Amino acid sequence: MNFPFYIARRYLFSKKSTHAINVISGISMVGVAVATMALVVTLSVFNGFHDLVASFFTQMDPQLKVMPVEGKTALAADPILTKIRKLPEVEVATECLEEQALAVYRDRQMMVKVKGVDDNFDQLTHIREILEGDGTFELHAADMSYGIPGLGVAYQLGMGYTYEQPLKIFAPRREGQLNMANPTEGFVVDELFSPGVVFCMKQGKYDKNYVLTSIAFTRHLFDLEGRLSSLELRLKPGSDFDRVKAQMEELAAGQFKVLDRYEQQDDTFRIMNVEKLIAYVFLTFILIIACFNIIGSLSMLIIDKKDDVVTLRNLGATEQQITRIFLFEGRMISAIGAVVGILIGLLLCWMQQQYGIIKLGSSEGSFVVDAYPVSVHPWDIVLVFVTVVVVGFLSVWYPVQYFSKRLLH
Asked: 303: which residues sit within 8 A by CB, 6+ positions away?
């Protein structure tokens, strides 16, 4: 058996001559456990919000999105795009064209993003699951084009699920000069009719900005016949996603970029990751402060065990072995605190998942979810344990070396 570890274990669990040492050791362990628990719970809550936001985006965002590297649009018949859409793993391919325009309904107006899509857009995404109203997903009928606004757009324009009058869309002409005497001549004007539904993703980025319609309408409105801003894809079930994405990137040859769902929302998820990192750093500083209690506990223990040290020296223990006894003591306090804190943190996360103990608001239905979302990721638990152990080990090394030289010689 490891001699220093055996003695350190006896010191940790045995009653000291001064009761205050036991109390301080217990406080040290509790401090480390609380800081560890806070790390587990906080990181899991950030994971919960991350997964929640990702679930909203996937209702409209495709599995893969191919966009030109330079410029806003590309030829729909580009040979590279043709090769990509003909890959055997591709199940659905939808051409999309997205541009900004002015939407006018009666006496109200606002800037919107008009997104034109193919008729198979409902096969590409889960758009039907987020429609509200009495109608259905429909983009055109004969020569009539339908427009499906986001819930926020419909609210700001005062349209409702079914708007009685057509929604007028104004887009600037791509050629010619603006006639200041008659500015309306500088715009292309077209109308969208109501299919009886609006979409609601519960994300302001979409609900307050987007109007879905047919790609034919968008190409005519913006004078971009035969062009697209993105090719959106869904793969067949069971496809090797990473391999197919890498194959598409190889085919793109630097002219197109291939984005998965997280890369399509890179700005949002980058901000969330930065917030999670900042929370981790701040809680680690709190953990470091909690470890100062271990230093106080060890310094008192060294003083208390001076007579034992003399006995150990007489029995043949070396200075290095004696120092390692107190190092093991501090490391065991931090390790036990880490394990206890992780277990309590996991228990709290489970209780929040099952019962939603901590609510987001006092009134039910005010938020997308009523309680704080929690998602435990195994690698976060590993990170927390390693962080606590490393911080605990480093925090006791120098003080033990210092006190051993000053008090035990």
From this structure: 407
Rounded to 5 degrees, what are φ and ψ at 17?
Answer: -70, -30
d(CA 245, CA 255): 15
Distances (CA, A) of 255 to 70, 73, 135: 7, 12, 40
SS3 content of the chain, % helix, strand, coil (to 5): 55, 20, 25
Residue 361 CB: number of other CB atoms within 10 A? Answer: 10
Query: How many Å is the maximal CA-CA distance in the chain?
Result: 106
Angle between helices 19-57 and 266-304 (to 10 degrees): 170
pTM here is 0.73
- Spatial distance between the Cα atoms of 159 and 156, rounded to a whole number of angstroms: 8
Q: Give the integer Cα–Cα distance in Å for 167 and 175.
A: 24
- Kindly list the distances between the CA atom of residue 75 and the CA atoms of 84, 158, 258, in Å, as whole numbers in the listed order: 14, 37, 16
Give the helix ranges, DSSP H, for 64-132: 79-85, 121-124
The sign of the CA dihedral 312, 315, 320, 321 is negative
- pLDDT tens across 77-117, in order? 999 999 999 999 999 999 999 999 999 998 999 999 999 99
Amino acid at 123: Q
How far, in Å, CA of 295 to CA of 168, rounded? 72
Q: Identify the DSSP state of 16.
A: P
pLDDT tens profile 247-287: 999 999 889 999 998 888 888 888 888 999 999 999 999 88
Q: What 3 state SS string does 194-210 have? A: CCCEEECCCCHHHHCCE
Q: Distance (Å, rounded) from C-alpha 377 to C-alpha 48?
A: 10
